[in-house]
Amino acid sequence: MVGDSMSNNKKGNSNKNGKKTVNYKKIGLIIASFFITALVLILAYLYSFLSSFNNSAVDLSKVGLNKNDAEKIQKDGQSCNILVMGVDIGTPGATDANNPKRTDTLILAHYNAIDKKINLISIPRDTLISINGKKQKINAAHAIGGVIYTVDAVENLLGIQIDYYGKINYKGFGQLIDAIGGVDVDITRKMDYDDPTQDLSIHFEKGTNVHLNGKKAEEFFRWRKNTDGSGFANGDLGRIENQHMFITKVMKKIKSPLIIFKIPSILSAIKSAIETNMDAKDILKYAYKFATINDNLSMDTIQGNLKTIGGVSYVVYNKSQNEKIILKLNDGIVPSIDKSKLKIKIINGTKTSGLASDYSTYLVEKGYNKAKTGNGEAANKTKILVYNGSDDMKADLKKDFQIDNIEFLSSSDKTFDVVVILGKDHKLMH
Hints:
The strands form six sheets. The protein has a six-stranded mixed sheet with strand order 11-6-1-2-3-12, with helices on both faces. A five-stranded mixed sheet has the order 16-15-19-17-18, covered by helices on one side. The protein has three domains: about 35 residues; about 270 residues, LCP protein (Aminopeptidase); about 80 residues, Alpha-Beta Plaits (2-Layer Sandwich). α12 links the parallel β17 and β18. The longest helix is centred in the N-terminal third of the chain and has 28 residues. The protein contains twelve helices and 19 strands. The protein is an alpha/beta fold. Helices cover about 35% and strands about 25% of the residues.
């Protein structure tokens, strides 16, 4: 009897009637382990997939974002600026991979970590900038010097720092819209434009509601005038209004719970079309923030005066017209430094020729006035002397000047507001 009882206990899967019992706990553990393993493998694949997006990315530390700043953003989740570039096909018919491409669309996405807000700032492609001393439209920056020139142009124009960038071509744009299932828009004006060189044919009738697939979305997004010359009276500024409306439709589509079933096709669509310096963690983090944002999304356009210079039409940036936008880009905090008024002197305290001139060029690229330069007594450590300034300038000076050693002094001499003494620890900026 004892032996039979022990035998039955060892089996553990039969009841008194001889029927087998089901070990639900064991089955539950097996199922849970399977799903956890599958989830880990999916996440690992997704992370690896997203990591490939920055394989050919440009290092923005060459423009202004240093390694320490980048790490701080990733660790602390600080506010950041993401520059989105939509590039055209370049020279029609060209097959060269290095065929110069202009930015047909420039949008600066600012994430405000304090208020959890996202601001999309459109930059007109006709905005006047200077490249190598020559007047250019900002959309030419990419054709001349790629991502570096474009990021540099936007930083200098707005006096901000670009932390990340994303570049997409129109083929990838169309594939992405197809992947989310397209969007429906109301056509408020007749659109009738043909450009065989760009393989662009746009035909929409006023007063209709149209479902835009990828190809049609590209046409709607790019249109600004008809073949007969009619169209937006303010050119690219009017086109940007259309783009903002379209982006609103896309954001609404992305927020739909059903979008989860389209994620595989979305990832497939953007794989070959997007270049970014974000790593996989950044992509997931900000994609989540954008997808879950509710009413904390605003869209603005950089304002300027339409002006013809040398027979070329430009949008001339007007600082006073953009004060509210700049305030948003600074998270509502008024900048502690007015770069246009700051008088700077740079003293070379080393035997390295041209060090002060090089640093002056760097500060001009950051939006400051050209500094007076000269040589001085030998110095081992670089430092900044600030006269009659306030301590709230310190953070901005550290970020822009890339110098931590800052001393605040009082003086009745109003010749200079800031004196930079370059020591042996200072390296050329170019």
